[in-house]
Amino acid sequence: MHLADEAAAHAFGARIAAVLRAGDVVALSGPLGAGKTSIARGLLAALGLAGEAPSPSFAIVQPYDPPEIRMSVLHVDLYRIEHPDEARELGLDDALEDGALLVEWPERLGDDPWPEALWLSLAFDEAGGRRLTARVPDAWESRWPLT
Ligand SMILES: Nc1ncnc2c1ncn2[C@@H]1O[C@H](COP(=O)(O)OP(=O)(O)O)[C@@H](O)[C@H]1O
Ligand SMILES: [Mg+2]
């Protein structure tokens, strides 16, 4: 899939939001500047968040809960995590009981930390936009392709 600009990234995030459920993990993989936070912002805005979501690169974990947003979401950026154990201490999986996880730099947790994650990989393309590839797990098969 091709995302031509930031607006396209926001729109794509909104399409994920439309089908997102508690227990879902959406992994956003790709180098710095690839557009991971942009997809997350589109998703969070579509869930009702007013204003622009901050990048969680310093906070590491940015939680959102009703009523500021339609369902609980943890927006996580593991860039600063140096060892998978540090990330495990965040207790991210606990959040899946009643919310969804949106994780930038998921590979900081090691190889395939969530086999059931919708795994989105972003790369720069020559035209200035981004290329997105998705690994769609069983849990997402009935929701894919997004409408
Ligand atoms: N699909 C896209 N095409 C072109 N530019 C984009 C796209 N998505 C995001 N950008 C721009 O790239 C920059 C970095 O985006 P960001 O979402 O912060 O990346 P990341 O979280 O992966 O580091 C921002 O200036 C943003 O506007
Ligand atoms: Mg980011």
From TrEMBL:
Keyword flag ATP-binding: yes
Keywords, ordered alphabetically: ATP-binding, Cytoplasm, Magnesium, Metal-binding, Nucleotide-binding, Transferase, tRNA processing
First-listed, main subcellular location of the protein, grouped into a coarse class: cytoplasm
Subcellular location(s) of the protein: Cytoplasm
One GO biological process term: tRNA threonylcarbamoyladenosine modification
One term of GO molecular function: ATP binding
Superkingdom, natural source: Bacteria
Residue ranges crossing the lipid bilayer per the database entry: none
One Gene Ontology CC term in the entry: cytoplasm
Pfam families to which the protein is assigned, alphabetical: TsaE
Similarity section: Belongs to the TsaE family.
Protein name: tRNA threonylcarbamoyladenosine biosynthesis protein TsaE
Source species: Sphingomonas hengshuiensis
